Amino acid sequence: MKAVGYQQSLPISEERALFDFETAKPEPKGRDIRVAVKAVSVNPVDTKVRKRAAPPAGETKILGYDAAGVVEAVGPEVTLFKAGDEVFYAGSILRQGTNAEFHLVDERIVGRKPKSLSFAEAAALPLTSITAWELLFDRLGVVPGKSLDDRTLLITGAAGGVGSILIQLARRLTGLTVLATATRPESRDWCLKLGAHAVIDHGKPMKAQIDALKLPPLSLIASLTHTDQHYKAIAEFMAPQGKFGLIDDPAEFSLAAFKGKAISIHWESMFTRSSFTTPDIIAQHHLLNDVSDLIDKGVIRTTLGDNYGAINAKNLKRAHALIESNTSRGKIVLEGWS
Predict the structure, then answer these.
(1) Is the pTM of this model over 0.90?
(2) pLDDT tens per residue, range 126-176
(3) Within 10 Å of residue 272's Cβ, how many Cβ atoms?
(4) Phi-psi bin for 87: left (phi > 0), alpha (psi -120 to 50), beta?
(5) Residue 126: which of 143, 142, 141, 109 has the closest Cα?
(6) Rg of the Cα atoms in the chain
(7) Residues 6+ apart with CB under 8 A from 36
């Protein structure tokens, strides 16, 4: 089968940073399903792994997490899917990735592809949707339901992939007041279009902007980017006994900033369940099915940005380069094989 991989952690400008190659078609065992990959999307985690995690000498690592495709074969213990089912998922960081014609994945982290979306549109969703859902409902403990919730959720860096889903989930499924941060006018407009009640500029002091809005108590934080730059200021204006959730890798982060107000800290990593085969690993199957239903009902929408064409090394290198330049807008998707 065709695949794209790497053997050394190289700058994306290098010829062998990513390359096309042929490898054996994997055979499903246990609860694995084999998916014929139709589309993938590229996330910052793809570039981070490529730069930081070289495979053992002589081996080729296949990147890729988000995927949408068709189940081609199933392992003997599979109960959730059958051949021919259309699916979408975000894979496991411990396995070979989705940048391959056929991919093995545990059925318990796979969901039904939204019927109303193309494979490309569906591939843009899993990783960011899982991260946003787990952060909001599993980590911060918000209970889905439209009953009035007299708290404000602040989402920093809200115009990115996770933030774009998180705004929609919080606004459509809860009674929270949703406050987003963005710096560019187009990012501000995007957040408002997705449902944020208000948007402030995280490039300027946030407290004065928040005070002027006269919002309910700012009890919940979803820190999606540059946590090290903002957390001390946020700790000062957060409500006591609030919850601070983060997904990035801050260079500096001190819990002491939150101690006086008894603010709890919550880390979100959507690969935790698959990496440790947690007892509740099937929660990702259920939440992806919920997301699929919400998409098909028109409650939330995909965040597809650019379609870079066929899945091959050339196009994946273009996608990696754009993400590393911090100039990507929306999810970059690749579809089909050349």
Answers:
(1) yes
(2) 999 999 999 999 999 999 987 788 999 999 999 988 999 999 999 999 999
(3) 14
(4) beta
(5) 109
(6) 20
(7) 69, 70, 71, 72, 101, 102
